[in-house]
Design a protein that fits this description.
single chain, about 100 residues, mainly alpha, Non-ribosomal Peptide Synthetase Peptidyl Carrier Protein, Chain A, 3 helices
Length: about 100
């Protein structure tokens, strides 16, 4: 996938918006998408999510974006940004 910088920025923005909405919906969070900063920690002190929530995040990414997160890949779950980076990276490899 050879995208221009403008296309990458647009794609990234769309994935961020979709991911935030899905997380709020599936985890029944009392936030609006704008309330969740992209670098906020998803687990622990940030959004206060636990290991069961982490499993739901993995399932959300798989069902909404068609991207599997390997067992033990906790680093992808650090923040919205790290999840989006992971999704784009995997999708990019699939398109090569």
């Amino acid at each position: 996938m050879n995208l221009s910088n403008e296309e990458i920025i647009k794609l990234r923005s769309e994935i961020i918006d979709d991911l935030k909405k899905e997380l709020i919906n599936r985890l029944d969070l009392t936030y609006e998408p704008a309330d969740i900063h992209e670098d906020m920690s998803l687990l622990g002190a940030g959004l206060g999510l636990d290991s069961l929530d982490a499993l739901e995040i993995v399932l959300t990414v798989e069902s909404c974006f068609g991207v599997k997160i390997a067992d033990g890949n906790v680093s992808a779950l650090r923040s919205v940004n790290t999840l989006v980076d992971y999704i784009i990276e995997v999708k990019n490899k699939e398109d090569e």
